[in-house]
Write a structure and sequence with these properties.
40% of the residues lie in helices and 25% in strands. The chain has 339 residues and is of the alpha/beta class. The radius of gyration is 20 Å and the shape is globular. The structure holds N,N-dimethyl-L-histidine (AVI).
Amino acid sequence: MSEPAAGADFAAPAESAAIRVLEAPENAEAERQEILRGLSARPKRLPCRLFYDERGSRLFERICDLPEYYPTRTEHGLLAERAGEIAALANAGHLVELGSGSATKTRLLVDAFRRLGPPLAYTAIDVSESSLHIAAAALLARYPALDVHGVAATYETGLDALATRATPDERRLVLFLGSTIGNLDPAETSAFLGRVRASLAPGDGFLVGTDLEKDPAVIEAAYNDAQGVTAAFNLNILRHVNRRFRADFALDAFAHVAFYRRELRQIEMHLESQAAQRVTLAALGLEIELAAGERIETEISRKFDLDRFGAELARHGFEVARQWTDAKRWFGLTLARAI
Ligand code: AVI
């Protein structure tokens, strides 16, 4: 299929994607239990997906453009260089993206797959329905004929829903970019990889972006930016919890802390209580006490070694087709195939 003229593409109507919302009522109760357990544990913790309300998603977009935050631009550079090779190796007719993706990164891949010729379908799975609409509109504005779908669900529910296929011989490529896999701990990673593999047929592909181990000073700077955007992003989780669970966290009573732990190969973000305080989460019937200096863990972001990551994929029923990295070896892309 040849590239349509850019002018004609942008003139087309944008909103015709099929967006399905998969209700999973058990998720709401599971989330309440998770927050109750996390805030009653030692150390206290909150799940990092609570960063992403509307304000948090906008702050994350700003993080991606910060001079210190190298992962987004490094992965983008790699995709720009390698998209053609990825498309040829994966030879897929359906791209399934976990997360609704930044239109620019997704477009690099869609362009490369369309250059190969066969018609292409694109499905994004994301808990945020509004993010799906934004991503779908951006893609359809550029590719009016693209078969675009969205599934508003957790990755697990969405992958399970896509497991049965309308066209059984169509090859899929699942995209998991941005090193979001680093936000899962080792047990979660293992369960997640098993779930992805179970949703694929032999020969289907899995493209994963991973931030790589490097000088901790570079990593720490990326999570402690000079403009304080990451600090605002971290603190925003409390604003979100206040709204969702009728809580009374005072944002100015906490400070952003981020540091690299070499032994675990991960950077961690925490919120440090600036005084002894008591917080109520009325919707959960929970009251917690924090000592001065006590921290709430909000995120881990693991950093990878490509060989070890390939071995982990092999343990979950994949073979590595190819891996790419940038000149500084700061970020990696792995294309794996289900066996
Ligand atoms: C989404 N995720 C891969 C980001 C990361 O780097 O772990 C989230 C983030 N946290 C602070 N800055 C960016």
